[in-house]
Amino acid sequence: MTSIRKNKVFMGLLYVLVFFLLSEWLRPVIELTATGHHRLFLAFVALGLVMAFFDVPWWITGPLKLFYILWFIVYVYTGNLFFTAESLAFVVEQASISLSALFSQDWQATTDVFRTVLFFALLWMAIYLIHYWVSFRLSIFLFYLLTVIFVAVLDTFSPYSGDAAIVRIMVIGLLLAGLLHLARWMERHGAAAKTDKLLVFSIPLLLLLVASTAFAFYLPKADPIWPDPVPYITSYSGKGGVGQGGVGRIGYGVDDSQLGGSFVSDDTTVFRAEAEEGQYWKVEVKDVYTTKGWELSEEDADEQLYQNGDEVTTDFPPASEERSSALVDMQLPFPFVLYPYGTASFLMEETLDYRYDPVQQRFDTLQENTAFEPDVYEVFYSEPSYSLTALRETDTEQLSELPPEYDRYLQLPDELPDRVGELAEEIAAGSDTVYGQAQAVERYFGTNGFEYSQSGIAVPAEDQDYVDQFLFETQRGYCDNFSTSMVVLLRSLDIPARWVKGFNEGEVIDTVDGYDVYEVTNNNAHSWVEAYMPGVGWMMFEPTIGFTGASSIDFDLEIDTSEPEEEEMPDRPEPEPEAQPEQPDTGAGADTGPTAGERFLAFVSEQAGKLIAATIGLLLFAFMLFKVRKKWMPKVLIPYYRRKEADAETFEKAYLRLLKQLELYGIKRAPGQTLRSYAEYVDSFYGTKEMTELTAAYEKSVYGGDAQSVDWPKLKESWENLINRTSG
Amino acid sequence: MKATERLGKVIDNIEKVIIGKREIAELSLVALLSHGHVLLEDVPGVGKTMLVRALAKSVGADFKRIQFTPDLLPSDVVGVSIYNPKDMQFHFRPGPIMGNIVLADEINRTSPKTQSALLEAMEEASVTTDGVTMQIPKPFFVMATQNPIEYEGTYPLPEAQLDRFLLRVKMGYPTREEEIEVLARSQSIPPIEELESVLTLEELLKLQEEVRTIRVDDTIRTYIVELATQTRRDPYVYLGVSPRGSIALMKAAQAYAMLKGRDYVTPDDIQHLAKFVFGHRIMLRSEARYDGITAEELTERIIAKTRVPVQRLVNQ
Fold it and tell me: In angstroms, what is the C-alpha Rg of chain A?
C-alpha cells in the first residue's frame, strides 16, 4: 500500500497550510507584545516545517535551528548581520546574565534575549507538535480548535482584532481538516495515494469550502449575543485598562459600527483632572453613519505633528490668549491625549510627538513612531465662546454655499427612512437660522417624551435604522442614541454635523490649590454632537437628556434671551453614568458606590435572557458530553478504579460499569441474555478471552457468593483492556 | 476425584453406546442426581432403552424394565403377595419397580390405574401392598418413555401426573453422520455388553447428597420464580408452572451446576434446563395450538424476555 504520507505533493500542500495556520498564532502575539521582526519569526517557522517535511534527521535540524536562533539574537540585538567577536561576546554575556538570574530565581532580571530564546523554544515545540499531528496522526482538529479559541480569546480580551484572522483561520483550518480527513479515509481503505486521485477527491471539498466561505462572508452577521465580559471582569478587579500598544476597548471603545443594547456600569477610573472647571474631554470624532453605528471615513488628511508646548490647531481655536491649564493624571493606558474644547497646547515630561489627524481629530501620542501611553500631562486651553449675534445671523442659505470638504459631514445612508427627514423638517420649522434649527433639534428630545436609560435598550434589527428606531419606536436610550439622532437630524437639514466621543466632566473628589480634582471613570464615557454654524465655525451640542455640557455663549445681544441652558452651568450637575456600548454600565451611578453583590445582581437581572441562553447552552453542552460519554468515560473510569481499593466490591462495580460501556459501544445485551453468553459474544467480537474470564469471576462472586475468590488486581488488566476498546 | 470428573466419565461411558446424545445423557444424570425422573418422549428405535441401560451399567446399578401394555396390572409393577402354602403365609414378591434404574416403556399404553401405581412409587420411592410399605432401594430412578405417535388405545398421562417427572426430554433422531457411526458400531459386538461401571452406587448416593449443598443465590431463586410466574401469566397458557415446578427447576439446576463443576447455580443453568422442566408442566390453550406454539417454545420466549439478574441483590 502506498501511504498517503509518501505523497510529497499532498503533504507539501498540508505543510503550507500548516504554515499559514501557525502564522495566525504568531501574528497576534507579535502584535500584542510589540515584538518586531515578524518575518524572521515566520522564517523560523517555515524553516522548521520545511525540514520536518523533508524528514531531515534531528542531528541536522537541531543545530541548524539553534544556529538560526543565535543568528537572530545577534542580528536583532547587536545589529550585525554576521557573527563578530563582539556579537558573540554579547551572546555570552546575555547567557551568563540570564543563567545567573535563573539560578537565583530572580525572574525579573532575565533579559529580553532570554525571553526571545524562550519564544523560539515555544515555536520549535509548536512546529514539532504540528508536524506530529499532520504526519503521524493525520489529524489537525485539536490544533484548529485551539487556534480558533486562541484568536477568539485575544479578540475579546485584548486590543487585537481577529475579524480578518478568524476568516483566514476558518478557511485554512477547514481545508486542512478536510484534506486530512481525506487522507485518513484513503489510509483506512487502502486507496492508492495518487496525486490525480487526490485531486479528484479534493474537488468537492474545495467547492464546498469556497461556497460556504463565500456564503458566510456575504451573509449578514448577527451581533454578539453576549455583552463584552471584559469591563465587568476588569472593573470588578479594579484593573480596567487597555492592552498594550493599541486602542483599548475598555472604558473607551473603538468600534462604534454597531450601536445599541444595554450595558452594565464600570466605575474603573480612567483619569483624574485638576482643572478650574469641569470639561468635556474630547477623544475623537466619527463622520460616517451606517444605519447601525458610526465609522470613520477614509478621507485623506494631512496629519500634523506637534511637540510639547506647540500651539495646536483644531476646529475649536482657543477663545483668548489667557490660558487655563488642566493637569491630567491617566489611570488607564491610552495611546492618545484627551483634550478640552479650545485646546492650545500640551505639555508632558516625556519627549514625544502629538499626531493630530484632522479627520479623526484625535491626538495620538507617539514616541519614536510607536504608540506611547501618557501618564501625566498638562493641557492648556481657553474655552471657545460664541457670539450670539453671529449665531443669530447664521442663515440657512449659507449652507448651500459651503465648500465640498463639508460634504462628508452631510453624509446619510440611502436606507435612512424618509420619516426621519420629515421629522427634522417638522422640528426645524419655525427657526430660520442654522443655530436656531440646531437648538430646536437639541431641545427636541427633552420635550417629546424621550427617556434616558441604559437598560433595556434595543439593538436595531437587520433592516432597521438605529436612529429611526430610537426616534419613532423606542424613544428610550443613552448618549449614543441621542447624539447619533441629533447628527442625523441635523444632516437631514443639510447642517454639517459629526459625532464626538470622549468623556464628560466626571465627579469632583477633591480640591487642590483652588483647582477641583475631577475623577473620570468609564461611566463618564460619553458621546455628543458637533455641528458647523456657517460663518461661526464648529460648535458642540449636547442633546442627551440630563447632560448639561454646552458651548459657551457670549451674550452680546441686547435682547432678553430665554435660553438659560445655553449658558455654562456654574454649578456642576450630578454626572449621570454614561458609557460606550462596548463598556457595559449598570444603571447604578458610580457615585452611589454599589457593592459587588449589587453589581452582580444587576448584571444578572439585566442579562437574564442571556444567562438563560447560556444555561441552555451549558445544558446542551452537558447533554452532548453525555451523548459521547462512551468516548471519554474509559479515560475517567480507568484511573478511578485504579485508585479504588482492590476488593470484590470494586470489581463488581467495575464489571457492571464495563457492561454499560459495552452497551454504549453498541454491543447490546438482550434482557434474557445471560452474562456468560454475552461474554462469549463480546469475546468473539473483539477476538479476546478476557470478557469470559471476567464474567466467570463475576458470576462466582455474585451467584456463587464467593467474593473472596475475586483477584481484582489480576483481573484489572483484562478489564482495562476491554474498557479501552469501548472508547474506539 | 472431583464430582464433575466422575460424572463426566459416566457421560463419556454412555456416549460410547449412544452416539451424539450427550445432552440427553447429561439430563438423565441431572435427574438421577436430583432424585428426579425423566419422561422420554419419542418414536421407537432411537435408543431410549439403550440410554437407560448404559446409564445403569455405568453406575453399576440394578436395571429393570417394565413394558407397559393395556392389560398390565398395578401388581405387575409394584409386586404381589403370594400365599405360600408351606408356611401358610403371604410372601411379597417384589415387582419390577423394585430396582435402581427402571425403564418404564410406553407408559401411556397402560391403564390409568397402573400408571398411577407407577407414579406413586416414583414420588414416594416406596410401595405399599397389603398394608405393608416397602422402601425401594436407593438410588431410584425411573425413565419412562412415551410414544407420541400412537394415539389409538393409549391413555395419555394426566397433567397432574406429568408433574411427577422432573424432566421431559425428547430424544430426536441422530444426525446423518451419527447414524452412519451407529451402523458401523452395531456391526461388531453390541457395545453395551462391554460397558463397565465407572461409578459405584455409594458414590452416586454421596453425590446426590452433595447436590443439595450447591449454592443457589437469592438472585437465582428470584429468577426461577420470575420465570414460573411468567408462565402463569402468559395469555397462551391455561395452566402455568406450579411451585413444584419451580422447586424442580432449582434442584435440577443444582445437579447441572455440579455436573459443570461449579458449586453455585448460574442463570445459564436455569435457562438450559427450563424448557425440560417446564415443558410438560405447562398446559396450553387451544390458541397456542392453532398458532403452532409448543410449551418448549413458549418457555424459550419467556426466557428471552425475562431480565436475567446480573447484580447482587441490594439487601444481601
Answer: 34
